[in-house]
Amino acid sequence: MTQVTTIGLEAVIDPDFRNGTGENPVWDAATRCWYWIDIPEARVHRLDPAEGRIRSWSLAEKVGCMALRPDGGLVCACETGIFDVDLPDGPDAVMTRVASIDHPKPGMRFNDGRCDRQGRLWASTMVMDITLGDASGAWFRYGRADGLRETPLGGFIVPNGSAFSPDGRTFYASDSHRDVRMVWAFDYDTDEGMPSNRRPFIDMRAMTGRPDGAAVDTDGCYWICCIDEGCIKRFTPQGRLDWRIDVPMKKPTMCAFGGDDLGTLFVTSLSRGPADLADDPHGGRILMFRPGAQGLPEPRLSA
Questions:
Q1: What is the mean pLDDT of residues 156-171?
Q2: For residue 285, what is the domain's CATH number?
Q3: What pLDDT is recorded for position 298?
Q4: What pLDDT does residue 221 have?
Q5: 142, 120 in Cβ contact below 8 A?
Q6: Whole-angstrom distance, CA of residue 231 vs CA of residue 209
Q7: pLDDT of residue 200
Q8: Choosing from 38, 175, 212, 280, which is the catalytic residue?
């Protein structure tokens, strides 16, 4: 039987704050702060839970995903490449390009991504106009030693849902496009940093929601935000749905575990403007709550 939990508005952080497309929350244990991005607004945000204060920095181009660096900065995958990003006292982030990309089609950018357990950044690309249904999206791997590398994982329209099992030997990825709505599992070679044996993990075509950002807990369960269904679903490592958490927003985009004990879940969401807000008044807001599960430390980019 599937457990069902409902999260109320008491979990909303700062009701006056709203993202365009909030994504990629990450807990930084060193600073005890949350970081996340807003894709269309090209911004990085930071929340200090102790102060309850949100700070924001502007980027020079749209950002798809980010990861923490060992020195306390960020690495961001944007429209034209991978950048080291530092956050000064002023309103604009300092961006240093570390890898460029030559997209096969115009109007593309990086999208979802995260580091594997060894600290290699996996980041996906997509055609920004998803109405085209163009499957030119692919997954790339970035590391300091070997730079940005292509991988065999291609044919995605809206690649999303990246996550790694606790032992790092299973890689998950999804396609959020309404005509696909699948999550796949891959065997992952932790030495070579390469996935293989692609297989269906979750078929969401019969569900209301579309798979977006994901997280994995200490039990190896996969937590996926379901856009248009207003919930987060947890699937066991065998692909069985065992928990549904309903949230106040219709379009949650990504969840992440954090806090000192990694028992807090941070959830971002999207709102594309008045049309969305008409039937989704809490769209774009962020949530924090304790679901009763524990996550894993988010790996930093390897030095």
A1: 98
A2: 2.120.10.30
A3: 95
A4: 98
A5: yes
A6: 8
A7: 98
A8: 212
The structure tokens 């962020």 sit at 286
- CA dihedral 194→72→269→218, nearest 10 degrees, is 60
Domain that holds residue 219: 3-289
Q: How many CB atoms lie within 10 A of CB 196?
A: 11
Q: What is the pLDDT of residues 185-211, one digit of tens each?
A: 999 999 999 999 999 999 999 999 999
Kindly report, residue by residue over 213-222, the tens digit of the pLDDT.
999 999 999 9
Q: Is residue 113 part of a domain?
A: yes
Query: Tens digits of per-residue pLDDT, 48-58?
Result: 999 999 999 99
CA dihedral over 164, 215, 225, 106, signed as positive or negative: negative
Max CA distance (Å), the chain? 51
Is 299 inside a domain boundary? Answer: no
109 neighbors 62 (Cβ within 8 angstroms): yes
Residue 222 included in any domain: yes
Structural domain contains residue 212? yes
pTM of the model: 0.97
Total domains in the fold of the chain: 1
The tens digit of pLDDT for each residue in 129-147 reads 999 999 999 999 999 999 9
Query: Alpha-carbon Rg of the chain, whole angstroms?
Result: 17
Q: Using a CB cutoff of 8 Å and minimum separation of 24, what contacts does 52-59 make?
A: 52/13, 52/14, 54/13, 54/14, 54/17, 55/87, 56/91, 57/87, 57/91, 57/92, 57/93, 58/91, 58/92, 58/93, 59/85, 59/93, 59/95
**d(C-alpha 141, C-alpha 57), whole Å:** 26
Instruction: Clarify whether 167 is annotated catalytic.
Output: no
Res 303 pLDDT > 90: no
Tokens of 106: 């115009």
Average pLDDT over residues 74-88: 98
